[in-house]
Amino acid sequence: MADYIMELRQLVGHRPLIYVGASVIVVDKDGALLLQQRRDCLAWGYAGGAVELYEDVQDTARRELFEETGIRAGEMTLLGVYSGERMRHVYPNGDQVSCIDIVYVCRDWTGTPRAQESEVAAIGFFPPDALPTPLFAPNLPAIEDYLQKYHQT
Q1: 11-16 mean pLDDT
Q2: What is the number of alpha carbons within 13 Å of residue 148 lying toward its C-beta?
Q3: How far is the CA of 16 from the CAs of 79, 87, 88, in angstroms?
Q4: Statement: residue 2 has pLDDT above 80
Q5: What confidence score (pLDDT) does residue 151 get?
Q6: pLDDT over threshold 90, residue 47
Q7: Of 18, 153, 146, 151, whose CA–CA distance to 78 is shortest?
Q8: What span, in angstroms and rounded, lies between the C-alpha atoms of 35 and 48?
Q9: What was the pLDDT predicted at 1?
Q10: Domain 4-147 annotated CATH 3.90.79.10
Q11: What residues have CB less than 8 Å from 123, skipping those under 6 apart?
């Protein structure tokens, strides 16, 4: 069932697809967020990726987090499900998506962050009041929601 989106892309080209993703905002003991700089557009965002056919969404979130960052998630809390116009995105290669992102927050994790060579240019923890720019547009709704719910300025 792997690479479901890639198989669909072979059939539909760059036309818009509904893309269901599962993602994790990792927070360290000081409240800093783990963000990674994407290689495809050089924007910063949290770890996450496509849910494969019949894959449990939490399993997707854990798998993507480990693949992209080397971090293993313990307990995760659902932050929210994000969809709609703000989740419209066109990738640099022209692929269009309408993202539905199921985002978790994880403060219970193990490992040392390391960048997945093929997808991640840089990785690090950033205080909520000093996030790097630009942020990946489809991640903005969840990041804004997280900051509103959990970060006191």
Answers
A1: 94
A2: 8
A3: 26, 12, 9
A4: no
A5: 82
A6: yes
A7: 146
A8: 11
A9: 40
A10: yes
A11: 34, 35, 36, 37, 69, 113, 114, 115
Cβ atoms of 124 and 35 within 8 Å: the answer is yes
Residue type, position 150, single letter: Y
Tokens of 114: 């390391």
For 17, residues 6+ apart whose C-beta sits below 8 A from its C-beta are 5, 8, 9, 95, 96, 97, 98
Q: Which H/E stretch holds residue 151?
A: none
Give tens-digit pLDDT for 95-152.
999 999 999 999 999 999 999 999 999 999 999 999 999 999 999 999 999 999 998 6
Cα distance between residue 34 and residue 9, in whole Å: 30
Asked if 69 contacts 123 with a C-beta cutoff of 8 angstroms, the reply is yes
- CA 51 from chain centre, in angstroms, equals 12
Angle at 86 between CA 132 and CA 127, to 5 degrees: 20
- Mean pLDDT (the chain) is 95
**In sequence order, which residues have a C-beta less than 8 Å from that of residue 11 and are 6 or more positions away?**
none
Q: Of the candidates 54, 141, 133, which has an alpha carbon nearest to the alpha carbon of residue 89?
A: 141
